[in-house]
């Protein structure tokens, strides 16, 4: 599989700190040492019916970890709010297609501020209308639960969207890291890997484990084995 500069080898595992103890975020970040990316869910109680954390906490977390930070912004008005996450030092900043009528403008601002730019789509949003503009992005996040909460059931019906992206990538028509988010655990990661996912976000599956770092390693092994059986 191809690797973007500074990324890989695939598969990547991105533990979501949404499932961590928010009173001990530095410790919880250290508990997933060996993770490829640290997934941080920013929710504004407008785009989604939940409120989590924002830029000040991301800035503090950046000081206590070397794990590349993957900020998933479930917020309105990303044109205004996304670039500061890149300026702060986030590795990848993902915004929702449903939250902006100018995704390309947002991507350009994020990249200009020094981060990879990601485009997320909700389970009910088709990928086809975004295939052209994905050329302006580095990552494509396919949501496999409704955004807003951790611990939900994996929606396998989104996997054809992963396969569409994978086929375009394999044929050289698109260069993007395919990320999946929601309900990923040891029962669901293989089907996602077989569909062509590069980067797997996992919240409850990692943080409910006695040893979160071991859970990350186990998920990575499982995804690596399954991705050998890519179903294009
Ligand atoms: C949901 C978030 C996810 C969430 C995943 O809106 O975007 O990142 O933390 O949690 P699990 O892995 O528990 O589904
Ligand atoms: Zn997320």
Report what the structure shows:
By secondary structure, the protein is of the alpha/beta class. 32% of the residues lie in helices and 18% in strands. The chain has nine helices and eight strands. It has helices at 25-30, 55-64, 78-81, 83-88, 103-112, 159-170, 189-195, 204-207, 212-227; strands at residues 12-15, 38-43, 69-74, 92-96, 116-121, 139-143, 177-181, 199-202. An eight-stranded parallel beta sheet has the order 1-8-7-6-5-4-3-2. Helix 7 crosses helix 9. The protein starts with 11 loop residues before the first strand and ends in a 5-residue tail after the last helix. The mean pLDDT is 96. Bound molecules: D-xylitol-5-phosphate (DX5) and zinc ion. The site of D-xylitol-5-phosphate (DX5) has 22 residues, from strand 2, strand 8 and helix 8. D-xylitol-5-phosphate binds at residues 16, 18-19, 39, 41, 72, 145, 147-152, 181-184, 201-205. It comes from Mycolicibacterium cyprinidarum. Keywords: Carbohydrate metabolism, Isomerase, Metal-binding.
Rg from alpha-carbon coordinates: 16 Å
Q: What is the typical, i.e. mean, pLDDT?
A: 96
Termini separation comes to 13 Å
Enumerate the spans where pLDDT stays under 50 for 5 or more consecutive residues: none
User: What would you call the shape?
Assistant: globular
Biggest β-sheet description: 8 strands, parallel
Considering DSSP H and I runs of 4 or more, what fraction of the residues is helical?
A: 25-40%
């Amino acid at each position: 599989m191809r690797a973007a500069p500074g990324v890989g080898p695939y598969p990547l595992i991105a533990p979501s700190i949404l499932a961590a103890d928010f009173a001990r975020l530095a410790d919880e970040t250290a508990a997933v040492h060996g993770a490829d990316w640290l997934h941080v869910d920013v929710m504004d109680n407008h785009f989604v019916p939940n409120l989590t954390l924002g830029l000040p906490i991301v800035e503090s977390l950046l000081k206590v970890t070397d794990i590349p930070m993957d900020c998933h912004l479930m917020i309105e008005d990303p044109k205004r709010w996304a670039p500061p996450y890149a300026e702060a030092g986030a590795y990848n900043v993902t915004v929702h297609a449903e939250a902006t009528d100018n995704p390309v403008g947002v991507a350009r601002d994020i990249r200009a501020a020094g981060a990879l730019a990601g485009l997320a789509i909700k389970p009910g949003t088709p990928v086809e209308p975004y295939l052209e503009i994905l050329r302006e992005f580095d990552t494509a996040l396919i949501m496999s639960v409704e955004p807003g909460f951790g611990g939900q059931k994996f929606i396998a019906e989104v996997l054809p969207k992963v396969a569409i992206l994978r086929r375009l990538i394999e044929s050289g028509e698109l260069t993007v890291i395919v990320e999946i988010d929601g309900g990923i655990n040891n029962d669901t990661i293989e089907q996602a890997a077989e569909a062509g996912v590069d980067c797997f976000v996992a919240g409850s599956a990692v943080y409910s484990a006695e040893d979160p770092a071991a859970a990350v390693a186990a998920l990575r092994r499982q995804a690596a084995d399954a991705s050998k059986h890519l179903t294009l």
